[in-house]
Amino acid sequence: MAAGDDVAGLVAQAREGRPRAVARLISLVESESPRLREVSAALSPHVGHAHVVGLTGSPGVGKSTTTAALVSALRQRGQRVGVLAVDPTSPFSGGALLGDRIRMSDHATDAGVYIRSMASRGHLGGLSWATPQALRVLDAAGCDVILLETVGVGQSEVEIAGLADTTLVLLAPGMGDGVQAAKAGILEIGDVFVVNKADRDGAASTRRELRSVLGMAQRPEGAWRPPIVMTVASTGEGLDVLVEHVDAHREHLGAGELQRRRHDRIRREIRAITLETVRRRVGDLSGHAGLDDLAAQVLAGSTDPFAAADQLLEQL
Amino acid sequence: MAAGDDVAGLVAQAREGRPRAVARLISLVESESPRLREVSAALSPHVGHAHVVGLTGSPGVGKSTTTAALVSALRQRGQRVGVLAVDPTSPFSGGALLGDRIRMSDHATDAGVYIRSMASRGHLGGLSWATPQALRVLDAAGCDVILLETVGVGQSEVEIAGLADTTLVLLAPGMGDGVQAAKAGILEIGDVFVVNKADRDGAASTRRELRSVLGMAQRPEGAWRPPIVMTVASTGEGLDVLVEHVDAHREHLGAGELQRRRHDRIRREIRAITLETVRRRVGDLSGHAGLDDLAAQVLAGSTDPFAAADQLLEQL
What we know:
The structure is a homodimer.
Chain A (H helix, E strand, L loop, with lengths): L6 H9 L3 H12 L5 H8 L7 E6 L6 H14 L4 E7 L25 E7 L10 H11 L4 E6 L4 H9 L2 E6 L11 H7 L2 E4 L7 H13 L12 E3 L8 H45 L5 H11 L5 H11 L1
Parallel strand pairs in A: 1-4, 1-5, 2-3, 2-4, 5-6, 6-7
Helix pairs in contact in A: 1-2, 2-3, 2-5, 4-9, 10-11
């Protein structure tokens, strides 16, 4: 542990809005430092305030630009904003901005905004178990809204929805097959749809197509009907409407549905941590004498691999 | 359980050489029937005789043709032969021959040969846990040699080596970058190298290149030096030499090294089954009241996900 890594002290400083304490705590959870558990425990009493908004969509639809524009809009309302940009394909991580996040640097010196890029070639498939912990850090640090942005690659898009209270699905006109391309699983997870680059040719037809596909979905009475918002994130056009819809969705969730979503999220997280813990214990068995004994018994034909696994499990 | 699925009876019939009993047992392990464990236990006293020979190499090098030619060569010596063709990318499975296995149909009516194609989009990454169990069935059924062939896709090639006593790595001239393309991990696993389609242009230079790359490897005194065999599997040319080298490798392994390899293999298998068992138990927790309680405690801020996972583990 580096000097100054008193966890309780870091959490207290983070709650006072000290960016370096926030950054240090995220580093601790991200590096899976031995203090990960201690950090997680220290955060527990201070989480549950932030509205987590996920942004997902294919590369090129303008996720980073939209994230930056949302930060501006939320800051104008005086809200504290956290940005967590997760790139499951990148080995790079840390506090540095991603290369294409030029616009985000407008906010880099704003004390009301925390920006963090995380690499996340996760142990759990896509997003690593560090991602929910980093969300907890930003939440405990007093963020009103946390924007969780992922580089859209397959499974991670759907995982984002599992971590967010409100999921924005971004599309843009002229992105290959447009709505068709986005169909696989992503239309089901959107709470708000954004047709970005709405000043381009084809925006109206993208909206029309999207509306038609969404209209086919069966929704129960009183269920949330995902709106479609047209934006030009690079100029800020449509961002006020987008923020209104994000607020409306949060309001629609109310206390009950929000808690239900978060309960499900935590259940998944506990299960993932449980499984990963066992995976590591089993991985640590390389030098385990019991495993060698059991393998010798299977080799001798006196037991079988399944019975041996049962015995190993009892020893764990 | 279908009528006639008395496991002890099926194992006895399989040991008498009844193909239908062998096929039924493989189906039981492959479908992960509830009888999987019972089958595995019943096989235990009867395994360890077969010499498992893995064949791996890029698509197009002639693995199926080489497998068929090896079957012919081994049958000429009067040996019983099992063939397990594993395709980790295919959703299709069962006793049917793969589409391109025309040559294998020469052996389809030979009572001394068991041929089985398995789909294997496995739970354990590449090869499923059914693959080692299917090997055990063929072993218990009295096969002298089991040819384990995989469609070469990345990880599965290396996994094949983990299941085989002797691993054949196949190359062919004019396959893109040839030896260079095969370099990533595959040169380390070969016990015998086969340059198939040796009547084609470039065969000599493929051998030369391969010899040069293999020559760079540091090997301890007395270690096995992987030979390179030139074959034209479609005509049977070179197959006798290949069989000699396979025999020589088996002899080189002796009792000690063979047991060591198999011990390692069983260790890995026990670990994989252990992990998969826990994975399923954790997956089965969807309706677990304890998990809901723990999630509620995390949501209320009275505990954290890691402490909750620890408690869940204790309950398991």
